[in-house]
Write a structure and sequence with these properties.
elongated; Nucleotidyltransferase, domain 5; alpha/beta; single chain; about 10% strand; Rossmann fold; 22 helices; four-stranded parallel beta sheet; about 550 residues
């Protein structure tokens, strides 16, 4: 019996499963591993937690290397665990990440060999994955290569859902979410280990004892999955495979360093917050992209390969050039806010932020505008709760949030105390007197260049004692409201690094009757299904029909 005939029979319930060692029988023998022999039948409302390890980040060029499916009941209880290595019929890619060598997959089945078992486990189940768009995009591509059309499945992405269930997290990698939820994580970057960890995360999300309570939409996914009709015959869908692979042509030299980032920025990246970037205008579908961007910058080096990886992620999540530009700008803005937390931006931090703007193809003037906006925002926050001056005030113009102050000739201990208090109050301590300096604090014991420059410019002077009183009565800044516009990217070049990703799925579509639909909702649903779709332009009619059909069921 051939593959397609056997699969059709299987899906009609006419094929027999051997169940030997807990694996489902196939014409090719036992090619997979089931970790729970004698597992209950895969029936009833359930989720299937999916994880893949891949040779790269492009579903059209790269292949699935390892696949794990963990079946979870409607209440979150694990029913079955299954995984297999898969021969990608080519290079295995980054062994240093996934730990899989060429020898490990030499005798492994190809995807067509396990397609029937994968289908049987997915059929009737809602899919769960951490960064689900990525996993589903690869699985959908493998189905297409095998000549089968994978239906659209109700899906829960634990990365996106963590914004609701774990709202206080700064970073939302699987390890971050598991730690916050108290879920034990096994071997990272191993398909079964990550799938089991994600299953534990799902169980935490679905627990009625945990707050916030589970969302109704998440609880209803298994019922919706039971209504999905799976094909019984091969029906290939278009798949653009191949295309130029810059990594293949560069060879070993691809590990060169187009940009290195020094310690000040690495420190900022280590404290990066996804929520902060989203608040600053990053595209809602950019969570995984932002995580990758922070990851590749964490070691202070952005390689050409990593730039390619970012492009691929942007494509998977449907981010076009303007989306990537907005996300890059939000990323830099979030880092700028971090740099301002301590009340000042060091020269090194400023220089590194300028360099990063160049690496991310942002306008060179962005950082100046970003820092100005961030500083003004911080000044407004600090000034919002300040009390007015007392009625008996006799020290003239008050000190204001954002004022720049220079110290000279003061006791070191007293100076250190006053500088710390200044930073907490939002007053900036700088090193040299200029026309923008609000005050020189001096006890008169030293008349050097700062003192001379202050006299030349007519800069206001105060003793440490007077300054301490001024500091206790700091007033809000006088800020002119200025809108910082989104800065466009530089003109595209043949091989930007890491410039706008390729947009897909934006072909013109005929009108879909008089049906009402929300284009943004269609795009979000498509990305959740692993379908590449552009963020602008007309949507394909076939995609709209699929969305409406899914919504109605």
């Amino acid at each position: 019996m051939g593959l397609f005939s056997w699969l059709s029979a299987l899906l009609r319930g006419e094929a027999e499963a051997s169940k030997k060692d807990g694996s489902i029988g196939s014409p090719w023998g036992a090619t997979t591993v089931t970790s729970r022999p004698g597992a209950p039948a895969l029936e009833g409302p359930r989720y299937v937690v999916l994880d893949v390890e891949t040779t790269g980040l492009s579903p059209s060029r790269d292949r699935v290397l390892e696949l794990a499916l963990v079946t979870v009941g409607a209440t979150g209880r694990v029913m079955d665990e299954w995984s297999t290595r898969i021969n990608p019929q080519g290079p295995v890619g980054a062994t240093h990440i996934h730990g899989i060598t060429q020898a490990d997959v030499a005798n492994a089945p190809v995807f067509t060999d396990v397609l029937a078992e994968v289908t049987l486990r997915l059929r009737g189940a809602a899919v769960v994955a951490h960064n689900a768009s990525f996993d589903l995009a690869f699985l959908r591509a493998e189905f297409a290569r095998a000549g089968w059309k994978m239906p659209f499945l109700p899906c829960l992405c634990t990365l996106e859902a963590s914004s609701y269930y774990l709202p206080t997290l700064q970073r939302r990698r699987l390890s971050d979410c598991c730690e916050a939820a108290g879920v034990r994580q096994g071997q990272a970057h191993a398909a079964l280990g990550d799938a089991k960890a994600t299953a534990g995360l799902l169980q935490h999300f679905l627990s009625p004892q945990v707050r916030p309570t589970p969302r109704t939409t998440d609880l209803s996914l298994p019922d919706a999955a039971a209504q999905v009709v799976w094909p019984t015959e091969p029906h290939p869908e278009p798949l653009l495979i191949g295309g130029p692979d810059r990594r293949a042509s560069r060879g070993p030299a691809s590990r060169t360093t187009p940009s290195t980032i020094s310690a000040p920025l690495v420190q900022l990246v280590s404290r990066f917050s996804l929520e902060e970037a989203l608040d600053e205008g990053a595209h809602p579908a950019s969570l995984a992209y932002l995580e990758k961007l922070a990851e590749v910058l964490a070691d202070g080096v952005l390689t050409l390969d990593e730039a390619d990886d970012l492009r691929e992620l942007a494509s998977i999540h449907g981010l076009d050039g303007s989306d990537v530009a907005a996300t890059h700008q939000a990323f830099v803005l979030a880092l700028a806010h971090l740099a301002l937390v301590d009340g000042k931006v060091s020269r090194a931090e400023r220089e590194e932020l300028v360099r990063l703007s160049g690496v991310l193809d942002l306008d060179d003037k962005l950082v100046t505008k970003v820092l100005a906006q961030a500083e003004e925002a911080r000044n407004r926050r600090l000034g919002a709760s300040l009390a007015p001056l007392p009625a008996s005030w006799d020290l003239g113009e008050p000190l204001r949030v954002g004022d720049k102050v220079v110290f000279t000739g003061c006791d070191e201990a007293e100076r250190a105390r006053l500088e710390t208090a200044s930073e907490e109050a939002g007053v900036r301590i700088i090193g040299n007197v200029s026309g923008r300096t609000a005050m020189l604090v001096t006890d008169g014991s030293f008349q050097g260049t700062k003192d001379a420059r202050a006299r030349e410019l007519g800069t206001r002077r105060a003793t440490p004692q007077q300054y301490a009183i001024l500091l206790r009565h700091v007033q809000p800044a006088i800020v002119e409201t200025k809108q910082v516009a989104c800065v466009s990217t530089r003109p595209a070049d043949p091989d930007p690094c890491p410039a706008a990703a390729r947009a897909a799925g934006s072909s013109a579509a005929p009108q879909v009757g008089n049906a009402d639909y929300d284009a943004a909702a269609v795009r979000a649903w498509a990305r959740g299904q692993g379908i590449e779709v552009g963020s602008r332009g007309r949507l394909p009619s076939t995609l709209i029909h699929a969305y409406l059909e899914s919504a109605s069921s």
